[in-house]
Amino acid sequence: MIGSLLKQLWKALGLFIRYHLSRLFGRQKQQPPDPGADRDPNSIAATLPTVGLDPAYKKIIAWQTNQNDLSAPGIASNPIYQLWREIPQGYKWSHYFETYRAIFDSRRNTPMRILEIGVFRGASLRLWKNYFQHANTCLVGIDIDPTCALYDAPSSGIHVRIGSQTDGEFLARVVDEFGPFDLIIDDGSHHSKHIITSFNCLYADGLKDDGIYFVEDLHANYWHPWRDSANSFLDFCKDLVELMHAHYWKNSLPVWTKQCELGSSLTLEVPEITTMIREIRFFDSIVAIYKMRRPYAPRFIVA
Fold this sequence. Notes:
The chain has 303 residues and is an alpha/beta fold. It is built from 10 helices and 7 strands. The longest helix is centred in the N-terminal third of the chain and has 27 residues, at 2-28.
């Protein structure tokens, strides 16, 4: 019995070490995509990661874009799309509107404190002001372009502050003035380094414990000049998925079942971020990270 258990533990330890060594040294070899890749339609497919997917799923097929935005399923009746069409000088991808509804609809009529990184011409701020309908909703936009201050409209609940999304001191001042926020939307520079820096500055103290950190236009992770780091924000999010499960890394099944049998409690050592994420949702070009302080690790239970 003991010998069998030791063999299982030894095998699990070997798998753990090999897995994390492969991630560590494999990531070091990553390079940003080749700037010339856009000229070869097959080059992107050639660089796709291999994750054990059957080759039948990876065969290259023709895939056309819609001829107009109304061809996208359900878009004509989407209230966010309808509002967007009334706002000039903005740009969106047609598939975003259903994702917005999926993430934002449940909070539409509640008082919200929203931070949007990236103001541009103010179109998104006006969209969210019209969509989130509670009278006490406060919208804050930040941008590095001084001309964006023109869209500051405190009497309408819209506030604009000028500064960089990579400036931790500036972000802290914004949080002190308006936060913490229920929703943070990163639609800023789209540079992977900048997105990661903003997350590191804002997630812990700038986002409420039941807040959502929402990043869009992540297709830019595959394009120069926005892909300016070996590991993109999507790579960063894949690591967050791993870190959500850090309490299982060093504790195999026998540890959890023994706790259940004895009715005891485990004391685990995990990165703090493990206790701060409830859920991560991936969409085409969008990631939504749901924050929740988890005071206790899960328990293994038997009915």
